[in-house]
Amino acid sequence: MIEPWLTQQEAGMIGGILGAVLGSGFGGIGGGLGGPLAQRGKAKGFVLGMFYTGIGIGVALLIFGIVAIVMGQPMYVVYPFMLIGFILTVVMGCLLPVVKRAYAAAASRKLAASEFRAGA
Whose C-alpha in 19, 26, 92, 100 is 20 to 30 A from the C-alpha of 85? Predict the structure, then answer.
């Protein structure tokens, strides 16, 4: 067996820090800002960029975890990366279409309002 990349304590610390930073960063800030901004049709590039970045980081963590499995690393090394990668990828991936629909609805409302003003 290959020498473990991390000790159990290091793996726990990295998992906790990554989970807290990525969870609050993408979950808290992304959700807290994404919902209201998308409904208003504002900061589309920032919000969608945050969602795509979250998905990318999640996939990268999943790939890192798979590489660790293939290289024979113990589960305490693999688990934090796979768990955080899975959660980040699934949550951000499932919410991305919702946010896109919110932006589309905001654009539709904006167009309808401009047509109403032009016709009045």
Answer: 100
**Per-residue pLDDT tens digits for 16-33:** 999 999 988 888 888 888
Sole residue written with tokens 């793996």: 11
Give per-residue pLDDT as tens, 61-72: 999 999 999 999
| Pair of tokens at residue 62 | 């999943």
Output the 3-class SS for the chain. CCCCCCCHHHHHHHHHHHHHHHHHHHHHHHHHHHHHHHHHCCCHHHHHHHHHHHHHHHHHHHHHHHHHHHCCCCHHHHHHHHHHHHHHHHHHHHHHHHHHHHHHHHHHHHHHHHHHHHHC
**In sequence order, what are the residues at sequence separation of 6 or more whose Cβ sits closer than 8 angstroms to the Cβ of residue 20?**
none
Q: Residue 58's closest CA among 33, 95, 32?
A: 95
Region of residue 43 (left: phi > 0; alpha: psi -120 to 50; beta: else): left
